[in-house]
Amino acid sequence: MNTHPPEAASAPVSSPSPVTWNTEAVQRFATAVGGDVSTDDYGPEIGFAALTSGVLPQAGFIAPLADFGRIEVSGAEGTKFLHGQLTQDIEHLAPGAARWAGYCSAKGRLLATLRCWRDDDAVQLLVSRPIAQALAKRLSMFVLRAKARVQDRSDDSVVFGLCGDRAGQAVAQAFSLTAPSAQAAHSLQGRHLVGLPELSIGDGPALPRWLLVVSQDEAQATWSMLADTLTAVDSATWRRTEVLCGIPRIVSGTSERFVPQMINYESVDGVNFTKGCYPGQEVVARSQYLGKLKRRMYRGHLIGDEPQPGSDVLSGADGQACGQIVLAAPDGIGGVDLLFESQTDAVLAGGLRTHSAEISLRELPYLLKSID
Length: 372
Hints:
Layout: H1 23-33, E1 36-40, E2 43-47, E3 61-64, E4 68-74, H2 78-83, E5 98-104, E6 110-118, E7 122-128, H3 132-141, E8 149-152, E9 157-163, H4 165-175, E10 185-188, E11 191-199, E12 207-215, H5 219-227, E13 231-232, H6 235-245, H7 281-289, E14 295-303, E15 312-314, E16 321-330, E17 335-343, H8 344-349, E18 360-362
Parallel strand pairs: 3-13
Antiparallel strand pairs: 1-2, 3-9, 4-7, 4-8, 5-6, 6-7, 9-12, 10-11, 11-12, 14-17, 14-18, 15-16, 16-17
Helix pairs in contact: 1-5
């Protein structure tokens, strides 16, 4: 892992090697939580000395997520504008509802995945931080005469991951933010608590998860109030919860590689097939209704080095590339949990591997919706 954050640079949202983020803002976040800044394939990371990445505490836990950025779309026609850009129905997104959405190229390939919700004044979008600036710039290019404003707010705010009932109780006590369900969000005085799919570990009860967004100025106070009752974990550990929940996240190394259905995005309700047009909509619709899609996302596990997002998955039959890594995270005991995209025939044949280790299949926590 590179321990030196990259210098800020401008790059297209689809660039595989990127990246743009304000290193000073990330360092302020790290200082506020008493952590150390590093970088990996997912962007800026905040870690803690003597902490083993991947170990999931049994009680509530909190993670500082410097690898997430925030984009805000405001204005009288902001929702209408976004409705014509994203895979999700934004015009009918009720205040207090949270949904996944995708932003596609004209070829139907995902440039970004987003968690979106509407507060009183704007639509908020959480996205991989390394592509937030370029994504905001690209969206702004298409505003034209619409009464909408697109702003990258990544440096104005910080994002925390929260998991467990104790975490919901702690944030409710600290900020009077009612813990929302997995498909809802609660915004109050510039703070946002956004619901996520629950995490199931073994035979225990499912654990609720949230993303908490507060201003950069509130980072230290927020950490002080919540870390007293919650266990601190790093962003790699939080990424493991994403993997276990089967939720894909497009990052710099995977931007513009997948049609939404290739990474099960329609199965987590990230695509609305009854809304109007958006970039790439015809390709996405054909993939759904012509029944020709022969690729899907799967969950797996390996013993060995953590593979990079976008790196090859190899077929057991002939050793040729049959898919790509979507998301991976350490499991805390020498293994790696991962989401990967692959040809369905190669998965059925078995024997999949990365360049360094065999992949064992694990069950996804949801059923795949049929491709007609």
